[in-house]
Design goal:
Layout lengths: L10 H29 L72 H10 L26 H8 L1
Length: 156
């Protein structure tokens, strides 16, 4: 038997040293990796997947500086109340066309012919005037605005 493998002999300490030094290096590397891995662990307060959580309340920083509430409580009246809103609140001129049509409040063009040509190019067909002809789209005063008669009168 060789001196390194002899049980209880002096060679055993050399063999043990040859195994212990790499083992110690491996243990040190694993411990260092464990510290790095523990630093990358998620916060225990954030449990569950991110998409399953509901977002928290967000307060705009400028809103925290507001002081002096100047709002007034208005008592409710019994029965329905009428809210006044402008006629063109949606950008449509409701004096023209059907309720489902949205003739723009301001039609581009300087003349009646130019405005009607633009509307016809945008897919509008000749339409009725139900109220005031504010945009002068029916200068011929026919049954329909932007008809062929209006284009002739508006071009002149």
């Amino acid at each position: 038997m060789s001196r390194l493998t002899k049980p209880g002999g002096p060679g055993r300490s050399v063999a043990a040293r040859r195994l212990l030094i790499p083992a110690a290096v491996i243990v040190a590397l694993l411990a260092a990796a464990g510290v790095a891995a523990s630093a990358a662990r998620p916060d225990p307060h954030l449990s569950g997947p991110v998409y399953a959580r509901t977002p928290g309340q967000y307060v705009v920083p400028q809103a925290t500086a507001l002081t002096g509430d100047k709002s007034k409580a208005v008592p409710n009246k019994k029965g329905p109340s009428k809210v006044v809103e402008p006629w063109n609140v949606d950008g449509c001129d409701h004096d023209y066309g059907t309720p489902n049509e949205c003739v723009p409040w301001v039609v581009p063009g300087k003349t009646t012919a130019a405005r009607c040509t633009w509307l016809l190019a945008e897919g509008f067909k000749p339409f009725k005037v139900y109220g005031r002809d504010r945009q002068d789209l029916n200068p011929a005063h026919t049954a329909l605005a932007c008809s062929a008669a209006d284009l002739k009168v508006g071009a002149a």
